[in-house]
Fold this sequence. Notes:
Blueprint: H1 14-25, H2 32-66, H3 75-85
Amino acid sequence: MIVLSVTVSIKVRREIVELADKMVRLGLARSRSHAFNIMIERGLKEVLKEIEFWENVYREVEELKKKGFVLRHGGLTRLLEEDRFG
């Protein structure tokens, strides 16, 4: 399998950079880039679980709409956004 790398420029908190530098110093990563990739990949499992949860929520809401359920006060969107971004 061929792995393609893509260079991106992002801003991260200073603490994240310091953590990456520590990982390199301790031999846990070959470089800052490698350290960031390790952090992303380890965190990816949690992100994938959250995405799956929210996809299921939206799928269930659509099923309820098809069955004629009406959401009172239109609060579902607000509640969902608060949980994700609050």
